[in-house]
Amino acid sequence: MSEDAGTEPEESEAAGPETESGDAESAPDAEADDADGERATEGRSVADDVAEYDDDLAEAVADLEERVEAAETRADEVETRAEEAEERAEELESSLARTRADFQNYKKRAKKRQEQQKERATEDVVSRLTEVRDNLVRALEQDEDADIRPGVESTLETFDRVLAEENVTVVEPDPGEDVDPERHEVMMRVESDQPAGTVADVYKPGYEMAGKVIEAAQVTVSEDDE
């Protein structure tokens, strides 16, 4: 038994160099594994960085696209509001033009009514004056030798002057003048030395103001010869 016990250490000693040799051989492999591990780690780190960069870039691009889209939307809204404002401005301008035209037409109508009212009022006054004038003329024809004749003639002259200032003229056709239906009112037909169908005499003078007949002259007309 002692021999067996003595041989075991020898085997152990003999195995020692092999172990050292194995350890020596496994050292480079371990270093290689470490290098590969480091390279793998570095590769994963770079890939992670690239992936992270790609994610950041994609996020930035998406954010930029959102901003661009929002800006385009705001631009469209601004353009729409601008178009609406332009349409509103055109409507207001058109409405203003119509209002101005209506106001101008109103002024013209008001002025015309005012002129017509003034003209009618003047015609009424003139009609009253012509009645007085006619009475003065008849008074002169009936009382040729009256003492008041000079006063009547003076008053008649005053009336004629006032009527002239109002642009009023006497319609008093001469005998033998053609009858004007617009200015002459035929009272009757009489025998006369004037041509048939012409004015024989003036029964009552008429008046016109600014070319407008306000009272036709009453005349007699020479009748046809048979």
Automatic annotation (TrEMBL):
Subcellular location: Cytoplasm
Main location: cytoplasm
InterPro entries given in the database record: GrpE, GrpE_CC, GrpE_head
Regions of compositional bias (Acidic residues) in chain numbering: 1-13, 20-36, 49-58, 84-93
Stretch forming the signal peptide: none
GO biological process: protein folding
Record region (Disordered): 1-126
A single cellular component GO annotation: cytoplasm
Listed Gene3D superfamilies: 3.90.20.20, Head domain of nucleotide exchange factor GrpE
A molecular function GO annotation: unfolded protein binding
Comp. bias regions, Basic and acidic residues: 37-47, 64-83, 113-126
Quaternary structure note: Homodimer.
PANTHER family: GRPE PROTEIN, GRPE PROTEIN HOMOLOG, MITOCHONDRIAL
Family: Belongs to the GrpE family.
Annotated function: Participates actively in the response to hyperosmotic and heat shock by preventing the aggregation of stress-denatured proteins, in association with DnaK and GrpE. It is the nucleotide exchange factor for DnaK and may function as a thermosensor. Unfolded proteins bind initially to DnaJ; upon interaction with the DnaJ-bound protein, DnaK hydrolyzes its bound ATP, resulting in the formation of a stable complex. GrpE releases ADP from DnaK; ATP binding to DnaK triggers the release of the substrate protein, thus completing the reaction cycle.
Record's protein name: Protein GrpE
